[in-house]
Amino acid sequence: MEIIKNADGSIEINGVIKSIEDVENIKQTIENHVKGSEVILKINDSFAMPSALIGYLIKLKALQQKNVRLRIADEGLYDLMKDLNLEKEFNLQKI
What we know:
This protein is an alpha/beta fold. 39% of the residues lie in helices and 23% in strands. It has a single domain, classed as Transcription Regulator spoIIAA (2-Layer Sandwich).
């Protein structure tokens, strides 16, 4: 898995998110890179998202009042987020 920090404040994730280490790296990147009230994650390749990451993003929105936007390329992961009723929670967008 590779994490790219973009100049616009968004974070791109290439590769499959599969381990707790991947989740910890994403969390650390969000905490260190994101300024302001919006978190934009572009998930380019992953077909899965560990529940630990979903829980962290929900917590960010609820406790820190961050506006979380997920831009997902994989149709299966996009459909899973919709099935979990997270479409509005994460401002879900298919890319």
